[in-house]
């Protein structure tokens, strides 16, 4: 097994341990397939729950952003669709607040229009 040459110092102290894991797996996938450069998600992208029994539309992306920005940046990129959806906290895993299903999968987000993307 090779380990990434990433020290604790290199990781922002602003990130939660879970966020660090997400970034590490994301960087690993980028190194595995460098041709697959991340396209930013366009402004207005709707993030929805991937669970078939739930499938609720959750957040709207208020400006174009990459996967890492959406998942890790502590600013209001994801705006709840309606008042029933709690505001997203960057300190918590990006998951459906209603059923707990993860909204991320190997560097992709689950969008209402295109599914995993
Ligand atoms: Zn859900």
Could you characterize what this model shows?
This protein has one domain (14-117). Helix content is 19%, strand content 16%. It is built from two helices and six strands. It has helices at 17-32, 67-72; strands at residues 46-48, 57-61, 78-80, 104-105, 108-111, 115-116. The protein has a three-stranded antiparallel beta sheet with strand order 1-2-3, with no helix packed on it. Strands 4-5-6 form a three-stranded antiparallel beta sheet, with no helix packed on it. The radius of gyration is 14 Å and the shape is globular. The protein binds zinc ion (ZN). Zinc ion (ZN) binds at residues 49, 51, 54, 56, 96, 98-99, 101.
> What overall geometry do the principal axes of the alpha carbons give?
globular
Oligomer: single chain
Care to count the β-strands?
Answer: 6
- The average pLDDT value, as a whole number, equals 81
Structural class: alpha+beta
Reported for the largest beta sheet, the result is:
3 strands, antiparallel
Terminal CA distance: 29 Å
**How many domains in all?**
1
Return the string of H and E elements: HEEHEEEE
Helix residue percentage: 10-25%
Q: In angstroms, what is the radius of gyration?
A: 14 Å
Individual helix count: 2
């Amino acid at each position: 097994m090779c380990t990434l040459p990433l020290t604790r110092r290199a990781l922002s102290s602003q990130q939660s341990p879970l966020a660090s894991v997400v970034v590490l797996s994301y960087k690993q996938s980028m190194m595995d397939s460098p041709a697959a450069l991340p396209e930013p998600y366009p402004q207005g992208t709707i993030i929805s729950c991937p669970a078939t029994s739930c499938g609720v539309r959750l957040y709207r992306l208020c400006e174009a952003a990459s996967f890492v920005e959406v998942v890790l940046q502590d600013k209001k990129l994801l705006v709840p669709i309606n008042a029933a959806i709690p505001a997203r906290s960057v300190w918590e895993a990006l998951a459906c607040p209603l059923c707990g299903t993860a909204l991320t999968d190997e560097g992709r987000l689950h969008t209402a229009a295109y599914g995993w993307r």
